[in-house]
Design goal:
Blueprint (H helix, E strand, L loop, with lengths): L4 E5 L5 E5 L7 E6 L6 E8 L5 E5 L22 E6 L15 H11 L8 E6 L1 H12 L4 E7 L7 H9 L9 H6 L1 H26 L5 H6 L1 H7 L4 H10 L4 H6 L4 E6 L7 H10 L3 E6 L6 H4 L1 H13 L18 E5 L2 E15 L2 E16 L2 E10 L3 E6 L2 E11 L1 E6 L2 E5 L2 E4 L4 E3 L3 E12 L2 E11 L6
Parallel strand pairs: 5-6, 5-7, 7-8, 8-9, 9-10, 11-12, 12-13, 13-14, 13-15, 14-16, 15-17, 16-18, 16-19, 17-20, 18-21, 19-21
Antiparallel strand pairs: 1-2, 3-4, 4-6, 21-22
Helix pairs in contact: 1-2
Length: 462
């Protein structure tokens, strides 16, 4: 339970949550708002003649109290505005569908009530997703965007899979893993086995009808299921929202702060956002999880103050220009290998836990393997990448060819990946699962956003 939500026991012996009092000098307002049709609780404090910052919290009963340790460190230099999102904290409950799109409309209405100037928006977790949506929809109202461990950007099955996975490292065990190779190997092998079992279960669940579609499309069902369940309501709205266009068109100066060991929203999401937002910089906080302001408060404030006072430094991708014949990379029946560099052909067969990073190739063939790819560029005039009976994870990958990707009896998880081809960018020839998160394909000069799942013997994204 959050430290700003307190417990009390009523006369019947039932444990209830109450909210801790806020500092007396914070000005509190309760305003009737038109988006959800209820009362929204807002605080503002600090220097009203200075730059305005609006803080947007994530999921949780405490609402704006998640920022209670941060606000005192900012209020002497900024005008601080924070709200309890409808459904949380001291704002009214609602049975309406809670989702970033609707919350962004609320911010559009609310901010002019407290500030006549552009604002810096700082959002954590779900609040980061709301802030991303708001900044992309209403850029004229935003001076700067700061996203902290933003949740919900990845396709929903991929997002859920990450939360169920066993981590490679545990903070309490890290010093022993670093000192004793046998401990590191044992932990890694055990967790990989568990992840493979849980991943197989999730794959089977993905083939069943989706119950959340009933909730999203039925007001009566929402009133029944969401009553007194704002976290479930907001979580379903979050994981079903597609941020592809928001990320693609965002031009606002953006800083992205992420905990290295986030078990809710993977660091992979932060890397995706940094790569695809035109003007963005990623800051990773070591030894921190999903709530870095609690895990590493001093380091978090250093990163936040930097983000508030400096323009982002965009990471520049290197572009390789072929100048000589390229070698072939071959991996046969090997495990735990990492590769980078430039190749004519990459052949991976019977290899587990292979990582390709900062790599370019003309063609890639993968069979009976588990491969993770990041910052990979593959381009040819024919079939560019073929995946058979394998599990492949791709982040910030570009695949260009007559047919960009051919998949057979495999699972492919692609995030922030660009497929382009003069024929079919993606071709499925046997039963496969393909997960696509904020990706795109370019077919005959037409751009299409890809966010969803394809299951079966043909490519049919839904």
């Amino acid at each position: 339970m959050n430290s700003y939500a307190q417990e009390k026991i009523d006369n019947d012996g039932v444990v209830q949550q109450t909210l801790a009092p806020l500092p007396s000098h914070w000005q509190q307002s309760r305003i009737n708002e038109p988006i959800f049709g209820g009362v929204v609780h807002v605080i503002d404090t600090g220097q009203k003649h200075k730059k305005a910052i609006i803080l947007v919290h994530g999921l949780g009963y405490s609402g704006l109290r998640d920022w209670v340790d941060i606000i005192p460190q900012l209020e002497s230099d900024y005008h601080i505005i924070a709200l309890d999102l409808p459904g949380f904290g001291e704002s009214d409950p609602t049975s309406l569908q809670l989702a970033p799109q609707r919350y962004a409309q609320l911010l559009k209405w609310l901010i002019p009530q407290f500030s006549s100037q552009k604002v810096t928006v700082v959002g954590h977790s779900m609040g980061g997703a709301i802030s991303l949506r708001f900044a992309s929809e209403f850029p004229d109202m935003v001076e700067r965007l700061v996203m902290v461990d933003t949740a919900g950007v990845l396709q929903r099955s991929v997002f859920v899979r990450h939360m169920t996975e066993m981590p490679d490292r545990y903070e309490w065990l890290a010093k022993y893993q670093q000192r004793f190779n046998i401990v590191d190997t044992a932990v890694s092998r055990f967790n990989r086995f568990i992840n493979r079992v849980s991943g197989s279960v999730l794959n089977q669940l993905d083939k069943l009808p989706d119950p959340t579609l009933v909730l999203l499309q039925n007001d009566y069902a929402q009133k029944y299921v969401y009553k007194d369940r704002p976290t479930l309501n907001a979580a379903i709205g979050l994981i079903n929202e597609n941020f592809s266009q928001a990320i693609d068109k965002l031009l606002i100066p953006t800083h992205i702060i992420w905990g290295e060991y986030d078990r809710v929203a993977p660091l992979r999401t932060g890397e995706l956002l940094q790569h695809h937002i035109a003007n963005a910089e990623l800051h990773v906080i070591q030894e921190a999880g999903h709530v870095p302001m609690k895990d590493q408060p001093t380091e978090f404030m250093l990163k936040l103050n930097y983000a508030l006072n400096n323009p982002p430094k965009k990471h520049k991708d290197s572009h390789y220009v072929k100048s000589e014949p390229l070698p072939t990379l071959t991996c046969n029946n090997q495990n735990d290998r990492s590769y980078s560099g430039h190749y004519a052909f990459v052949y991976i067969s019977g290899c587990q836990y292979i990582t390709l990073t900062d790599l370019s190739a003309e063609q890639i063939y993968i069979e009976n393997s588990d491969v993770t790819m990041q910052q990979v560029d593959v381009e040819s005039d024919s079939l560019t990448m073929e995946v058979n009976n394998s599990f492949v994870t791709m982040t910030n990958v570009r695949v260009h060819g007559e047919t960009a990707l051919k998949v057979k009896d495999s699972t492919v998880d692609a995030a922030g990946t660009e497929f382009s081809g003069s024929n079919h960018p993606i071709q499925v020839v046997a039963d496969s699962l393909i997960y696509l998160s904020v990706s795109q394909h370019n077919h005959n000069g037409k751009l299409h956003y890809l966010h969803g799942m394809s299951e079966g013997n043909s490519y049919d994204l839904r």
